[in-house]
Amino acid sequence: MAQLIFKGRDIYYDVKGLGKPFVILNGIMMSTKSWEPFMESFSENNMCIRLDFLDQGQSAKLKSSVYTQDLQVQIIEALIKELNLSKVSIVGISYGGEVALEFAVKHPNLVDRLVLFNTTPYTSPWLAEIGYKWNSIGRTRDGKTYYQATIPAIYSPSFYESRLAWMKKREEILLPIFSNPDFLDAMERLTNSAEHYDVRDRLDQITAPTLIVAADEDYLTPINNQKYLNEHIKESSLVILPGVGHASMYETPMVFVSLVLGFINTKQTSYQV
């Protein structure tokens, strides 16, 4: 547990383990606590660095502020300097994947490997409308309706139906959070920060070997988004998870961990075969 002071505001981060370092970046509704089920594996042979973006988890809240994801990019740069690291791998999912892409475009010299789950190269008009709907519901302060609008859609229908008891437990945990006005206001700011996100014209600037993971039942960032990334990032590979939704790390946790650690820790990047 540690605090980084960034522009006078506290940024919460956590470092566990020793070895090759990687930073793992939260999806929009996540926090450092969301990765706890994976930390035993992530920290066994690696330095795993978690952080809460501004307006997430235990980091400062930017009340009455308007900002873009570039602010989160600056935080990652400051954290790498704080930890005195010359280069790190970056793992991001969804919102975190977007910030990871922006960071890799802006600071290619700081990125060793890049792993992107359920990530889009831009906020499409369709995705923006989903964000507007979330914000509108959030302003009603109706936590149950907010849950119903945001959570079921991030899972594949087959997973949701087969894990109904687990989903009900998730609902019990999340309803008090989703009924908190401070959380809902922070979510609106985070959602708005991605409204004009677009790295399509800069993907050729990414130099790190990149693994792109798509899920064929992801209805928030559909598979064509990941195919676009694969077509436009030079040193990239695409893996498609069948029967999986947007929250791929929870639906296929062992596969998630295997892909992250396998890609980051593989010694060679080229092979003579």
Mind explaining what this structure looks like?
This protein is α/β, with parallel strands linked by helices and 273 residues long. It has a domain at 2-122 and 198-265: Rossmann fold, CATH 3.40.50.1820. Helices cover 41% and strands 18% of the residues. The chain has eleven helices and eight strands. The protein has helices at 39-42, 70-82, 95-106, 125-138, 143-150, 157-162, 164-178, 181-193, 223-232, 248-251, 253-265, and strands at 2-6, 9-16, 20-25, 46-51, 88-93, 111-117, 210-215, 236-241. It has an eight-stranded mixed β-sheet with strand order 1-2-4-3-5-6-7-8, sandwiched between helices. Helix 3 links the parallel strand 5 and strand 6. Helix 5 (143-150) crosses helix 7 (164-178). The chain is globular. The model has no long low-confidence stretch (mean pLDDT 96). InterPro entries: AB_hydrolase_1, AB_hydrolase_fold, AB_hydrolase_sf. It holds the Pfam family Abhydrolase_1. Belongs to the lipase/esterase LIP3/BchO family. This is 3-oxoadipate enol-lactonase. One of its GO terms (molecular function) is hydrolase activity.
Provide the fold topology.
Blueprint: E1 2-6, E2 9-16, E3 20-25, H1 39-42, E4 46-51, H2 70-82, E5 88-93, H3 95-106, E6 111-117, H4 125-138, H5 143-150, H6 157-162, H7 164-178, H8 181-193, E7 210-215, H9 223-232, E8 236-241, H10 248-251, H11 253-265
Parallel strand pairs: 3-4, 3-5, 5-6, 6-7, 7-8
Antiparallel strand pairs: 1-2, 2-4
Family: Belongs to the lipase/esterase LIP3/BchO family.
GO molecular function, one term: hydrolase activity
Domain AB hydrolase-1: 20-251
